[in-house]
Q: What sequence folds into this?
């Protein structure tokens, strides 16, 4: 028998999941899928999330502790954050160009607008309330939130990944400062844990094709709901909007990241995408850069040759704060909603979008559907009624899957860039 490489197996899982999902949706097998198929997807995601905290903790502690000097840490940090911000700003600009040139908001028929507003009205309220909570926080709150008062609290929730990153960094630094013989057993322990977690990632990935199959089939049947013709009508009406987002994401993924790779490293486009493919497929199927993180780290280290020191710092940070796909989507969605309700956005408003989208994407959690909550804040900043998100909620899950792929690809390209500029790119 031919031995297929893992990424081919995952692709087969994805395609079969798509086909089965469409079949199940048209045959009305929704209940069967949610009772008997989707639990396997949930188990797979839980396994990935389960190892995220120990992986980040152990690899970052050993990574920082192996740095010869702390100057290097601040250099890597500065470089990483600068490239993250620049690539996100480029993403938003691409989104704005796409939506202003294509003008998708002018194509939605009036009766569809009313229908969408009515159908999704109730779902809007929850998102607006969630956004209000975010908005009430002070400007420095994200920094305050980064410092935990109890480590076990942080480790008990994957949403607190930045706290885990923070703790790992200060432990790593202190390990450099204490006597070598005292530091050694601690370091040995974390190195052992690190090896162990990497093996766990490998083992969990063995079931990835089945997990991906279940996740995709479940997503399709839940999007289709009870009436698949409604979905087709929705997709038709919002096709142009989706096109504007997708073309932007493609441009960012193919053009901006190639540029990053070219500017900072010698890695070929082909090698990068081939190495990263399983992580991208997983991002697509889970819609969560947080759940994908263990695999992104593994692929970057083992296939792309990024040193553990760099990947363990750049990638967890990226998964939480660097969301180019989300920022691009938010820009397109904000302008699309304004266009649909007949509001003309001037240059000032568009510049406000650039600024708020960059900040909002930093604050977006790495979980499904988080981007649309932060979109409310952008809409308020440019005085577009937030109820307008009803227009786009119906297709949000599909775009979420795609923007998450861009988010993960962006993080990996920066990991390669930073590793290469530090002379830490093997191969
Ligand atoms: N699902 C995205 C992620 O995890 C965030 C979002 O845009 O909703 O990267």
A:
């Amino acid at each position: 028998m031919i031995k297929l490489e893992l990424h081919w197996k995952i692709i087969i899982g994805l395609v079969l999941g798509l086909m089965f999902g469409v079949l199940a949706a048209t045959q009305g097998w929704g209940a069967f899928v949610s009772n008997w198929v989707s639990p396997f997807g949930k188990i797979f995601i839980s396994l990935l999330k389960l190892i995220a905290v120990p992986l980040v903790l152990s690899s970052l502690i050993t990574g920082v502790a192996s740095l010869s000097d702390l100057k290097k840490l601040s250099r890597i940090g500065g470089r990483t954050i600068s490239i993250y911000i620049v690539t996100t700003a480029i993403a938003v600009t691409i989104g704005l160009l796409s939506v202003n040139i294509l003008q998708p908001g002018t194509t939605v028929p009036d009766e569809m607008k009313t229908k969408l507003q009515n159908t999704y009205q109730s779902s809007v309220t929850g998102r607006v309330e969630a956004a209000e909570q975010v908005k009430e926080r002070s400007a420095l709150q994200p920094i305050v939130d980064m410092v935990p008062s109890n480590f076990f609290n942080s480790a008990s929730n994957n949403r607190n990944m930045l706290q885990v990153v923070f703790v790992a960094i200060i432990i790593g630094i202190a390990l450099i400062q204490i006597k070598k013989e005292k530091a050694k057993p601690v370091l040995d322990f974390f190195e052992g844990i690190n090896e162990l977690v990497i093996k766990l990632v490998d083992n969990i990935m063995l079931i990835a094709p089945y997990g991906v199959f279940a996740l995709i089939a479940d997503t399709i049947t839940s999007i289709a709901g009870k009436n698949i013709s409604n979905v087709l009508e929705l997709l038709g009406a919002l096709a142009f909007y989706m096109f504007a987002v997708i073309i932007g994401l493609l441009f960012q993924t193919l053009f901006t990241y190639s540029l990053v790779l070219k500017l900072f490293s010698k890695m070929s486009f082909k090698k990068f995408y081939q190495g990263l493919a399983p992580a991208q497929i997983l991002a697509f199927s889970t819609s969560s850069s947080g759940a994908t993180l263990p695999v992104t780290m593994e692929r970057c280290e083992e296939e792309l040759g990024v040193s553990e020191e760099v990947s363990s710092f750049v990638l967890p940070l990226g998964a939480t704060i660097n969301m180019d796909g989300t920022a691009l989507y938010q820009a397109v969605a904000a302008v699309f909603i304004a266009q649909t309700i007949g509001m003309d956005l001037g240059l000032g408003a568009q510049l406000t979008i650039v600024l708020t989208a960059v900040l909002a994407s930093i604050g977006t959690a790495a979980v499904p559907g988080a981007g649309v909550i932060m979109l409310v804040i952008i809409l308020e900043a440019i005085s577009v009624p937030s109820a307008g998100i009803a227009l786009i909620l119906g297709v949000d899950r599909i775009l979420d899957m795609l923007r998450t792929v861009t988010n993960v690809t962006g993080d990996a390209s920066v990991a390669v860039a930073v590793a290469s500029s530090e002379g830490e790119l093997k191969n």
Remarks:
- DSSP finds 18 helices and no strands in the chain.
- The mean pLDDT is 90.
- The longest helix spans residues 30-65.
